[in-house]
Amino acid sequence: METIKVGDVLFTRDLTPRQVTKVGRKYFYVSNRPEPFVKETLEYRGYRTIQLYKDKQTLSDSNEVEDNFRKIQSHINKYYTGSGSNISLDKLREIVKILDL
Questions:
Q1: Which residues have CB under 8 Å from 38's CB, separation 6+?
Q2: pLDDT for 9-20, tens place per residue?
Q3: How far is CA 12 from CA 7, 55, 80, in A?
Q4: Residue 52 · residue 40 · CB < 8 Å
Q5: Per residue in 26-52, pLDDT tens?
Q6: Residue partners of 32: CB distance under 8 A and separation at least 6
Q7: CA distance readout (Å), 15 to 5, 6, 53, 66
Q8: How far apart, in whole angstroms, are the C-alpha atoms of residue 38 and residue 49?
Q9: Do the bridges between strand 43-45 and strand 49-51 make them parallel or antiparallel, or are there none, so unpaired?
Q10: What is the SS3 assignment for the chain?
Q11: For the chain, which residues make up each domain, given as ranges?
């Protein structure tokens, strides 16, 4: 894990830059946010979770992962309706193998 330092710039999901203003042993604070963020995870968990990212590429990769999971989930939900599945058993076996389940 990289060290968080005062002056570092992190990004929110909507690409808003936030500068680190204070760093403690377990938590750090950023500009325009009163919440303490966990150094280990770069997130705040309160009434909602706020995730920060070290750079735009990490954020882009995270968004791509979420989009791909959403596409897979939507596709399976669309074609699997209980006993009337439109996905063949062979295809399901391939999916299980690919996902290492």
A1: 26, 27, 44, 45
A2: 999 988 899 999
A3: 16, 10, 35
A4: no
A5: 999 999 999 999 999 999 988 888 999
A6: 18
A7: 20, 19, 9, 16
A8: 11
A9: antiparallel
A10: CCCCCCCCEEECCCCCEEEEEEECCCEEEECCCCCCEECCCCEEECCCEEECECCHHHHHHHHHHHHHHHHHHHHHHHHCCHHHCCCCHHHHHHHHHHCCC
A11: 9-51, 56-98
Residue holding tokens 């399976």?
A: 76
∠ CA 65-28-52, rounded to 5°: 20
Give residue for tokens 């325009």: 32
In this prediction the pTM is 0.67
**Token pair for 13:** 């999901």
Any idea which residue has 């919440």 for tokens?
35
